Amino acid sequence: MTSSKLRGDCPSLHRPMVTGDGLLARISPVAGRMTPQQLEALGQAAQTFGNGQMEISTRGNLQIRGLSTHSHDGLVKVVETADIDVSASVPILAPALFAPGSFSSDDEVRPHLPALKEKLLERLETEDFINGLAPKTSIIIDAGGLVDLSGLIADVRIIYGADQCWEIKVGGIEAKAQSVGRVKGDEAVIEAVVQTLKLIAALGKKARGHDLSQADLRKILADDQILEEKQGGGEHVGNEGTDVSTRRSAIKIGVQPLQDEQNLLTVALPFGAVDATAMIGLAQAAIKGGALHFLPLPGKLLGVSGLDEAAAKGLLKRARALGFVCDVDDPRLRVMTCAGAPACQSARLNTRLAAADLIKTFADELSGEVRVHVSGCDKRCARLGFVDMEIVGTSEGVEMTNLATGSKKGAVVDFIIHIIIEKVRAAQEQ
Ligand code: SF4
Questions:
Q1: Which of 22, 202, 355, 423 to pair with 250, CA 20 to 30 A apart?
Q2: Which residues of 172-181 are buried (b: 16+ CB within 10 A; e: fewer)?
Q3: Same domain flag for 238 and 258
Q4: Which domain-ending residue is among 327, 354, 378?
Q5: Positions in the chain whose pLDDT score sits under 50
Q6: CB of 376 closer than 6 angstroms to any ligand 1 atom
Q7: Whose Cα sits closest to atom 4 in ligand 1?
């Protein structure tokens, strides 16, 4: 086992990261999904070898913490025995491998897209320059599925269109990424991704996609490879001809009917983590309900596919009893947290405890639209999109910021900050 000690490095199953509470392993199935039986096996492994907690990250990665060098070997064996195919080299986020509304048993995942991801991984593993990339370098394959990937940062993003072409974009979130051009065919897009990463690596170990210059971008595709720009403003469309703009945030907490009388059940992990006992309970109930797959999804969500309506509703009830977030107006969805203390070495705040306390005190205020970010330190790993209020652990204590100043929500945030300060003062005076 090689463990990653670098701050900002990306852990994997075979390269766990040293954290405040032992090693952290990230399990990223190549196909972006696992069977209920595989999830159950991972839950048991988290209990036996880890700290008994399971996490799903903002980018949709399943994580197990609290491992030791010795117990990590046990986890690796479980993953191998359960036949979970995990990716290596560069993290490739491709939850949109499944196409909109096609969760039927025969066509749950578009057949050629997992193969594309595997081909890309195989190719990257033969390239020496991979070792010269920044640790968090990532690729997003956006094939027009239900998951909105536009707000996630990627060094290289490839977007599939209804015209069966791939658009290549470099750096940042989708709206800010620079377009390289469009190509047709898997071989062409793999080559373009490899060339882009090679150029990034040539800029040095700290370089990212957004560091590439216009001159660099022009080197990625040969003139005869570049397809003409699309007419009509260049909207991206999904595999089924679904305009990508219409599926933004299309994943909803709860039961969503899809094609072929199939349903997708989506729940959230409270503050991104759940006790492995709850995960095992959900996996066992899913097996009874005939579910096909679990899909760890961006935004700390967990999808369950292949359910009929009655089974999906039954599983939702079970998930609620097990403590998962099952309702869109659950205040826990308004508070995003990182792992915090004691899990992270850099943390100055127990973020999940602080978030739970916040919700207990301000359930009414947080059931509205106020979004809060609780961060263990000023690195702000878990922050995604706009927030109204930020609570950050610092060496001097806790820093609270109203980012919605001036708006209606600003008054609510000021009220929350005022009450917290009063509570702290009262505690100090006792
Ligand atoms: S933001 Fe949270 S998880 Fe990230 S380094 Fe700081 S304490 Fe650790």
A1: 355
A2: bbbeebbebb
A3: no
A4: 327
A5: 4-8, 89, 95-111, 230-249
A6: yes
A7: 381
